[in-house]
Each structure stands twice: as C-alpha cells, then as structure tokens.
Amino acid sequence: MANYERSKERQIKKLNNLKDKNEKQAKKGDAIVDIDLSGTQLKKWVVNNTERKLTEPQNSLLAKGLNFAVSVDRIPNEDFIVATEKASWKLTSGEAQNLRAEVAGVLKSVKIPKSNISKDERQALKQLKKDKSILIMGADKGRSTVVTATDEYEEKVNTLLSDKKTYEKLKGDPTGSYKRKLVGILQRLKKEEKIDDGQYKLLYPTAGNTPRIYCTTKIHKEGYPVRPIVDYMGSIAYQTSKALAEILSPMVGKTVHHVTNSRELAEELATVKIDDEDIFNSHDVVSLFTNTPINKTLEIVTEYLDSDTTLKQRTLLNTKDIIELLEFVLTTFMEWLEQRAIANAPVACQPKLWKRYVDDILEIIARGTTQELTEHLNSADPTNNIKFTYEEEAEGKLPFLDTLINRKEDGSVKLTVYRKKTHADQYLNFASQHPLHQKLGVVRTLLDRKDSIVTEEEDKQQEEARVKQALNRCGYPNWAIEKVKQQMTDKSKAKKKQKDKTAEKNNGMVVIPYVQGVSERLQRVFKKHNIQTAMKPHNTLKNNLVHPKDKTEDAKTFDCV
Description:
Layout: H1 2-27, H2 40-45, E1 46-49, H3 56-62, H4 77-88, H5 93-109, H6 119-130, E2 134-138, E3 145-149, H7 150-161, H8 175-191, H9 197-203, E4 212-217, E5 226-231, H10 238-248, H11 262-269, E6 278-285, H12 288-291, H13 294-307, H14 311-314, H15 319-325, H16 331-343, E7 353-357, E8 360-366, H17 370-378, E9 388-392, E10 397-400, E11 403-407, E12 413-417, H18 436-453, H19 457-473, H20 478-489, H21 491-503, E13 509-514, H22 519-528, E14 532-537, H23 541-545
Parallel strand pairs: 1-3, 13-14
Antiparallel strand pairs: 2-3, 4-5, 6-8, 6-9, 7-8, 10-11, 11-12
Helix pairs in contact: 3-6, 4-5, 5-22, 18-19, 18-20
C-alpha cells in the first residue's frame, strides 16, 4: 500500500510539472506571424503556372510546403508490425516475444491524433489528388510548390527529349540484356573470389526497373523551362553504382582546389586578401550532366585507379574489374579538367585563387582577363563537350554557393548568406506531423549556417533576425528557437550525451512512421530493448500530390516486405 501511495504521489507531481511547463510556454507570448495568403507570401510559396484559379483552401494547403505531413485518419499498424519484426531479428526468442507483446499493447491503446489541417483543407487535398489536368511538384531551386498544366509539362518534356544530340530513341527496352551482362560479371567476380556471397547477393539485380525521367520547373528563369532528372532507384545497376561510389570516392576531392561545402569555403576565404587590380569571378559548366564525355571519363578513372596505392585496402577488385562495372563518374572528370586548365592557363589570366564545388568555380583573377580565361577553359576539354559561362563581381560583390562574397576596402573579405530572388523562406511547417527533434533540427541548421558562414557580428544579428522571422512564418514559436540556441551553446552537455550513447548495448535500428503520440511511445519500447529508432513522415503532401514520373508496376516494386 505504501508503494502505491509513493507511486501515486510521483505521478501527480509529474503531471503538475507538465501543467506548469505548458502554462509557462503559453505565457511567453509566442505569437506566430499571420501569413498573408492573398499577396506576396503566397506567390513565393505557391507558383501557379496555369490559367486555373486555385481555391483558398487549396492555396492554404499547398502553402504549407510539400514536405508537410498530414495527420493520419488511420494508424498504420502494418508498418509498425513490420518494423517490430525487423527489430526482433537480433533478439533472443524470449526478448522478441516480449517486444511484440509491448508493441501490441501500445497499438491497442492509441488514439488517432487530432487533425493538423482544417476540414476545408482536407477536402482540398482530395480535390487536388483527383485533378489530372494539373501537375504539382517542387521547384527546381528553392522550396516553392509549382502548379503546372499537365499538357504543358508533357510538351516541354517531349521537346527536351527531341534533342537528338543528347537523347537517342531505342528500338526496344535493353534492360533484360543489360541484366544478363551484369549478372555474368558478378558471377565471374564471385567465382574469382573478388566478391563474397554477401556482396554478390547485395549487387545482384533483383529489381529490373527501367530508369524513369521526370523534370522540375526552373521558376527563376523566364518561360519556366524544365530540368531533366533520371530516377535510377530500382534499376539493375543501382546497387552496383552505390558500391562503386564507395570504392571511387576516396580518389576525388584531394586537390587544393576542391571545397566540400560553404563552411569550408568560408574558412578558406577568411585569410584571403584581394588586390585592387584583381577581381572575384565565377565559372559554371553548361549542362555538365549531359555533356560529360563517358569514354574520356573512363580513361581518367583508369589512370586514377592504377596510381591509387590504397585501392587494395578497399576492395579485391582490380582496375579492369571496376572499369567493367563502371558506367559513369562525374567528379573525377572535372578534377582532371581543372588540373589541366590551371596548369596550361596563360600567364596573364593565371588564377590566384581557384576553388571548385562540382561544376561551380570561384576564382581571383586580374581585371580584364575574364574573357581570355573563359576561352582557355572552353578549349581545355579535348572532346569539346564541356563549355563554361562566367559571372564577374558587381559593386564588389559575388554570390557563390549560398554565400555572398563582399570585398572590403582593405582587401579582406566579409561573407553573408546569399539568397536568390526566388528564395521562398519556406521551411518545414511546425504543425507538420514530424518529430519535434526534426523540427528543432531545421532551426539548428539555419543558426549553424549563420555562425559558420557570416563573418561579422552585425551581419550575424541581422541574419538571426531574418531566420527567426522566417521560422515564425512557418509556425515556429520563439521557445523552439531559444531552446536550440541554448543547446548550441551548451556543448559540454551534448558531448556527455554522446558518450552515454556509445556505452549502450546496440541491437540495431528500425525505421518507423511518425504518428504523434504513437511513435514516441513505441520509441520508448524499442529503447528498453536497446534498439534505436528513426522516424519518417508518413503522409506528406509530396506523397499525396507529386507524381511527375510514370507509375511503377506493382510487380516491379523493390525493397518491400
């Protein structure tokens, strides 16, 4: 009886603490900025490229962003059960039985969460799903949602595919013959003991989907042209390509000219001094993905592999084996091309600084030499496929990646965050059915970018104010932003938590759909059995509305139970 009373007191105390916490947050005055969906903000978030006028609920729904997860009207029990069975593989028979019983207990007692969209918006979702006259998709750059007429989209894609220099119409589907060829190679490598049975099963093409093309709309360009993207997932060489990437990736990015991200670029520019007679300039490759010469790339990869002394530590495959499997590598070609271009550049336009991210290049060159350097770069590729365009600094400023480079009077550089005119300031909506830690991750990413890129304190304050305003518009209360700021300053606590995690026994990880009030309870159940959980949104607007690709036949669906 005494134990019961003590337990009762503890639970009452927890409940009162929770009530106090909620009341404090309610008193903080975290008013969310109202979104004017009739004006500028709507036009940034929803780009309607059709003659059809969307209803107010349709606009309101799409303005939430395509990554917005709508609350479910049915608990996805099947997905939770599959995750539980996967988690049971590393447990003993008794532990697995206990896990199943605990999960079943949770699923029997849960309730469907409250809807996070209005009744009118839910009806709008049904209407948009049924309407085949329009296509809804994300913009090519930025997070805007684009509404396009289906006929117009198909016409633009067909026009793109009619370019015979880039695309060739096939008489039939070669997937079957390619699959037989790949299986033959894998069987030979297994027989020669260059891959083991596990690797053979991983690389074996169980799925045989033909890669599918679709396009995204470039809303930042006149006429809304489209950018082609090929979906390679589920194709016969998908797993092989991933394996080759692991083998080849250590060979690239080793030159002093390569940068991996904006943070690294900011560190590089921190000590740069630019003379008055020099300028910042950038070059960009025209359509690199469709113009990279495959045969020349394979020659370059062969040279790299032959000179790689660490290759045998990563794989038993030799150069000939890898080239036989390899179909396309991009970064290696650009690295070879830049080394050739820099080494042979005329003295007058020799870059004093050269930093490249994939096909975007930042340089410091002498004033008046931009055209000469561009002509030199356009002649560097022996196949004559790769061509460059350039942009010079204007009024001492030049955008590169997501940084705006500003030259100061003393020759030093200050950096701020760069946003294109089409940037929508749209982030994951706080009302979305996502775990709280993922929403806080959005805040952390934006604040971390401010700290790592922006160089001067006044600019950092302005950037933080801009971030806070944008997040408020997306429904983020101030307490969420302040919570992340506190976490970022309390680094010692974060390190301690990391140490505690590494000491725990690990029985693997499972991925479960996120349903508010359900997934958190199941996460605690899995944690008791030392199983980590990752949560993914279950019912996003993108899953419901974005279907630009040809539908895959049910029989060809891959990676399913």
